[in-house]
Every structure is written in C-alpha cells, then in structure tokens.
C-alpha cells in the first residue's frame, strides 16, 4: 500500500489551465441572457466541440413530465477558436414565453446534454417588484477567490431576476481559461439567473502594438441586446424590466456617441419609472489617483438632465457610495453613484467627502430591490454581513434614506 502512494506522489503535476477548461462535446459555459423582452424571451449560450446544437424548453411542472412536452429550438453555432484550441459557440433565442412563469430547458447536440435548468421569466407588469444582484470586478483568482462571493450572493438573493457585472469579469480578456474560471465559479447560477454584464478595460486587451481590442470572447459567450450605438452591439444596450430601464454604457470607447445616444433614449416617451445605469469606469472614484474628470464632464450633465436614479460601476477595487449628487450647483436631488468590487484585488482607498460609505480591503456584492415607490440597496461583504444600505424613495426629486449599519468603516487593510 505504501508503495502505491509513493507512485502517485511522484506523478503529481500541475494540470495545465487550458486542460482544466478545455471544451468537450458536453455543453459547458451555459449562461442565460436577455436579448429581447425579459417577460417573453430568453437567450441561452453555451460552448462545446459539437458542430451544432439545440435547446429544449418546457413549462416547469411539479413532477418530471416536462421532457415529453418540450419544444426544440435550433442553435446558431459559430467557430470559437481561442488560445485553448478550437471549440464552437452556440446560441438560442427563445421567444413566445409566458411572463412571470417558471420554465425548464436543456442544451446539447442530441447525445450530450446539460441538465434541465430552471428559471423564471420576468413579469410583464411595470409595477411588479424586482430584485437583482450587482457585483464589481471579479477579475483575479476568479475560481479560487471570487467563487465564494457570487455563491454567497446567490444564497442571499436566490430569487434575483438578474445579475449585473460591472466590467473586468476577467483579467486578460482573450485568455480562455480565465473565462473558464469565471464560468466555473458561478456554475449553475449562470444557468438559472440572467446575467447582464458590461465590459471593462480588461475585456479590451492590448495587442503587440499596444492597440486595445474588444475580446472576441464577449460576443461568443453572451447574447445581449443590440439596441445601442451601432458597432457597440451587446456592450452598449438597454433592457426594460418591471419598471426599471437598465442601461449598459461601454465606457471603453466612443463615449461621446454613447452620451448622445443616452440623451436621445432618455428623451423619448414611455420611459420606465426607474433608470439605472451600469458602466465600468466610475465618474467618482474612491481609489487614489483614479479621478476620471473627462468622463464625468461628458456624461454627468446628461445624467443630471434626465434625473438618472442610480449608477453602478467597478474598476477601482474599493467601495464608495455617494449621497444624491449632481454636477450642477443649485439642483435638488441627483443620482446615487456606487463603485464596488467583488474580486480579491484591492486598491488603496481615498476617503472623500462625497462618500456616504466607503470600504477598503473588502469583497462585496449588492442586493437591490425595486418597487414603484422605492429602491432598497444593500451592500454585503463576502461573509454576507450587511455593510451599507439605503432606500431611494421615488419623487420629484427622489429622497434618500441612509440606513448605514453602525459598524465602523473598513478604511484600510488590518495590521498584519
Ligand atoms: Fe478596470
């Protein structure tokens, strides 16, 4: 027996990262998105080595009878060649669904299948309350160190209808195994709750000439709306869900055009009651030497003009949350600005007057509940502890009620 153990020990070697996350004929990296109406459609994306594939979808039942009643939807399949080798990306857009209804689906090639995954469509009522999760940069040691945060978020908000990722999901946007880690960390959460990511600078890796390019992984792995600025499909977009207009701006490029697009979008009639923006680069930064004056001067007048309710960002690897704030003197009300981080990479905090609550050296996730009268915002630490909270009461202007816990602010890493 002792000899056998010795043989195994001698053979122990690091499995290459690309081997761990290598594509096979079995579907992986399965994720739900919305590319259309959240009440009646769902987009499913996955990866495999199979040439093509399809989804089967049925109304969820209390018993196991759904497979016989499932409808088949063929995938659009594309080559998905990366540094880890060849694979195929598969997408299905499923429409004609009933609002606020549980469904089950599976994806595969007819022989190799995912499990049957369950999700719920959004309500078609603009006054139905909705809960969602927002996280800042995952980015580093994603499988090892970020997984517990996204899993804790699920534990706290299992009925969340969607998850916002505020950019820098990975560190090197074209390195395939980092995406493998991102998908492995969230696991079946991604198969059960819709994701709405916005790209960060790390999704724009530089080439040998130091020119930054949007990683091809984004559009192969996600299916997001194409209703933003032309050329920025699936990165600049908006979704209207249950009284909330959720808008993703791609803060990496063509910012001025997106500002004009945003101004036009928010000037149009039939705007939902609440407007929440997400983009990666904050216009108010809690980290030292990270002020982004150019973007602030470009976008804040538009946010002020249209009384955007809340802005959810990342990039600065600290936590900072404002009171109601405007760029205009004398303007009442304003916008709530949040910067947060979910991954282990942490920057030094610069505690400034604009912050109602701040944190350094803390991994956080946020649970946000919206109803017609108010937004309830909670930032929680990796262990699930309440770190920050407020309510935003709808009005002209909105009214802020701070509900900050009495625990001290975490302003620096504890002494070792
Ligand atoms: Fe960033």
Structure description:
The radius of gyration is 22 Å and the shape is globular. The protein has 416 residues and is an alpha+beta fold. It starts with a helix and ends in a 14-residue tail after the last strand. The mean pLDDT is 96. It has helices at residues 2-11, 17-20, 66-69, 142-156, 176-186, 189-192, 217-221, 255-267, 293-305; strands at residues 28-33, 42-48, 54-59, 71-74, 76-79, 88-94, 102-108, 117-120, 130-135, 162-165, 194-197, 237-241, 244-248, 274-278, 310-313, 319-322, 336-339, 355-359, 364-370, 374-381, 386-393, 399-402. The protein has 2 domains: 21-120, Purple acid phosphatase-like, N-terminal (Immunoglobulin-like, Sandwich), CATH 2.60.40; 130-402, Purple Acid Phosphatase, chain A, domain 2 (4-Layer Sandwich), CATH 3.60.21.10. Fe (ii) ion binds at residues 168, 200-202, 280, 315.
């Amino acid at each position: 027996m002792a000899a056998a153990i010795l043989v195994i020990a001698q053979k122990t070697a690091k499995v290459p990262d690309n081997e761990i996350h290598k594509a096979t004929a079995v579907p992986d990296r399965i994720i739900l998105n919305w590319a259309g109406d959240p009440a009646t459609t769902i987009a499913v994306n996955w990866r495999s080595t199979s040439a093509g594939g399809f989804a089967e979808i049925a109304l969820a039942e209390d018993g196991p009878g759904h497979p016989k009643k499932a409808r088949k939807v063929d995938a659009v399949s594309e080559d998905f060649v990366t540094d880890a080798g060849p694979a195929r990306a598969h997408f299905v857009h499923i429409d004609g669904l009933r609002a606020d209804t549980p469904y089950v689906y599976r994806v595969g090639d007819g022989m190799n299948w995912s499990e049957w995954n369950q999700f719920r469509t959004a309500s078609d009522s603009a006054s139905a309350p909705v809960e969602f999760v927002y996280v800042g940069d995952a980015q580093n040691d994603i499988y090892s160190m970020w997984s517990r945060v996204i899993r804790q978020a699920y534990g706290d908000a299992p009925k969340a209808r969607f998850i916002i990722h505020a950019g820098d999901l990975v560190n090197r946007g074209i390195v395939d195994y980092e995406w493998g880690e991102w998908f492995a960390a969230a696991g079946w959460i991604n198969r059960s709750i819709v994701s709405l990511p916005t790209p960060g600078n790390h999704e724009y890796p530089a080439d040998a000439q130091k020119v930054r390019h949007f990683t091809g992984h984004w559009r192969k792995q996600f299916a997001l709306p194409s209703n933003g600025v032309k050329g920025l499909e699936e990165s600049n977009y908006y979704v209207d869900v249950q009284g909330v207009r959720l808008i993703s701006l791609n803060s990496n490029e063509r910012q001025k055009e997106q500002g004009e697009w945003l101004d036009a979008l928010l000037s149009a009639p039939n705007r939902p009651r609440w407007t929440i923006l997400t983009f990666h680069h904050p216009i108010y930064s809690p980290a030292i030497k990270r002020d982004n004056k150019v973007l602030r001067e470009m976008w804040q007048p538009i946010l002020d003009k249209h009384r955007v309710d809340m802005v959810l960002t990342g990039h600065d690897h600290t936590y900072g949350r404002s009171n109601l704030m405007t760029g205009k003197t004398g303007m009442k009300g304003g916008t709530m600005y949040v910067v947060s981080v979910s991954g282990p990479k942490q920057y030094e905090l610069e505690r400034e007057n604009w912050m109602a609550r701040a944190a350094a050296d803390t991994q956080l996730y946020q649970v946000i509940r919206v109803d017609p009268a108010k937004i309830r915002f909670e930032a929680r630490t990796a262990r699930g502890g309440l770190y920050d909270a407020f309510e935003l009461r709808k009005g002209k202007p909105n009214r802020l009620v701070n509900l900050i816990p009495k625990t001290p602010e975490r302003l620096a890493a504890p002494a070792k």
